[in-house]
Design brief:
279 residues; alpha/beta; 12 strands; globular
Length: 279
């Protein structure tokens, strides 16, 4: 059974367990935004700099779809009619996930295929350099809440002004020396999650990250006056997330010291199925 709620602060809650089990305990139509960064089925072990790791691997594509489909259905159930979901994947599984979302939410619920262009990373000799992730944006109904975000304009004519963001989001990934880096594998930049949360969840609304990892989505929610709910199977992930949330709620920096843990206890999900990824 999932661990009990882990927070004395009404602005955030952490729950340990498989998100399918924990989601079953949430009320219907109780969440304004779901952001989920599920496994990518990349076939590799994702490792952080402190020994934190998880296996991002399924037996085959069918196993991956069978893992994700009921979890997406559970996320659909907890969304309010004005709510929406952002599903963050990459080229390994984006084609499978888009079809699953059409099945669960309906093709008419599709809003955007966002591209996060992060810039960093290597390139191979026989392919274009892979420098982006995919984020699928679906509304629970056609009445989903949305506030178009604005980003700095780059043209000389508009220098110093802002413009509406497009479906290509250019934000650098976290480098090894970044102040916000926690050492948790696949951590996403706070700038990315802040933009998404502010655009897709009304102030005072509830943001759910069912595979919350190091808690970046939750920090972005609390910093922007939203309520945050995070779920993860990994006690190490939740420890980092809790420290980050406590710091931001106390008005201090969101960085936490890198955890030093044994590799044997660092895996975020037993296999199979593999652990969920982290934001």
């Amino acid at each position: 059974m999932p661990a009990p709620a882990d927070s004395l602060d009404p602005r955030w809650t952490l729950r340990q367990g498989d998100c399918l089990e924990v989601l079953a305990q949430l009320n219907d139509a109780s969440v304004d935004l779901v952001y989920v960064d599920p496994p990518f089925n990349s076939g590799v072990a994702r490792k952080g700099r402190a020994g934190l790791q998880f296996a991002d691997r399924f037996v085959d594509a069918a196993a991956y779809r069978n893992f994700l489909a009921p979890r997406l259905a559970a996320m659909h159930r907890v969304l309010k009619p004005t709510g929406s979901i952002l599903v963050h994947v990459d080229w390994h599984t984006s084609h499978h996930v888009r079809l699953l979302l059409d099945e669960v939410f309906g093709p008419a619920a599709f809003v955007n295929h966002l591209v996060w262009s992060y810039g960093l990373g290597g390139s191979g000799p026989r392919s274009f350099a892979r420098k982006h992730d995919d984020i699928f944006f679906y509304g629970r109904t056609g009445d989903y809440w949305f506030e178009p975000p604005r980003v700095p304009a780059r043209s000389a004519r508009l220098r110093g002004r802002t413009k509406k963001a497009t479906d290509v989001i250019e934000i650098a990934s976290i480098n090894n020396m970044a102040f916000e880096r926690t050492g948790y594998p696949t951590q996403k930049p706070i700038a990315l999650l802040s933009l998404l949360v502010r655009a897709c969840c009304k102030p005072g609304g509830t943001v759910l990250d069912p595979t919350c990892g190091s808690g970046t989505t939750l920090v972005a929610a609390v910093e922007s006056n939203r309520i945050a709910i995070g779920i993860d199977q990994s006690s190490d992930a939740l420890r980092i997330a809790r420290q980050r949330l406590e710091r931001v709620c106390n008005g201090t920096a969101v960085r936490v010291p890198t955890l030093r843990v044994a590799r044997a206890s660092a895996s975020a999900r037993p296999a199979p199925p593999p652990l969920a990824r982290s934001a």
